TrEMBL record:
Zn(2+) binds at residues 100, 103, 136, 139. Keywords: Metal-binding, Zinc. Binds 1 zinc ion per subunit. PANTHER family: HYDROGEN PEROXIDE SENSITIVE REPRESSOR, ZINC UPTAKE REGULATION PROTEIN. InterPro entries: FUR, WH-like_DNA-bd_sf, WH_DNA-bd_sf. This is Zinc uptake regulation protein ZUR. Pfam families: FUR (PF01475). It comes from Fulvivirga imtechensis AK7.
């Protein structure tokens, strides 16, 4: 199981304990090529975990630089795996996302960088959301 080793290494490298819910959730993020919401995770997980535990795990993953918020819509916040170069607490994954109008999946476009925007010193930018919308390749065919 290659993914099991990847998940365990990911948890260890970010100083997180190996728990059944963390293992199962990260396996799902590796399995799917699109961002997942808490509702998606609850639907896909084989084990029965309460909603609070799922949200705590997501918050912990984001805090430790394992996941980043890929999009937010009526279905909630969708999370995607960060690259290995994304440090704890300060996400440096500055890439675009694509949300499909048909299936509503959100994909990371790691090769499409967010353009640098200059604003006056009156503002302190913490996050940038650069989302492209249209039809994904699965829905298009």
């Amino acid at each position: 199981m290659e993914n099991t080793r990847i998940v365990e290494d990911l948890l260890r490298s970010h100083g997180l304990k190996r728990t059944p819910i963390r293992l199962e959730m990260l396996q799902l993020f590796l399995k799917y090529d699109f961002a997942l919401s808490a509702s998606d995770l609850e639907a896909f997980m084989k084990s029965d975990h309460d909603r609070v535990t799922v949200y705590r795990a997501l918050a912990s993953f984001e805090e430790h630089g394992i996941l980043h918020k890929a999009s937010e819509d009526v279905q909630g916040i969708k999370y995607a795996l960060c690259s290995s170069s994304c440090p704890d607490e300060v996400h440096t994954d500055m890439h675009a996302h694509f949300t499909c109008d048909e299936c509503h999946h959100t994909y990371c476009l790691k090769d499409v960088k967010v353009p640098e925007v200059k604003v006056s010193n009156s503002y302190a930018i913490d996050r940038v959301n650069y989302t492209l919308k249209g039809t994904c390749k699965q829905c298009k065919s």
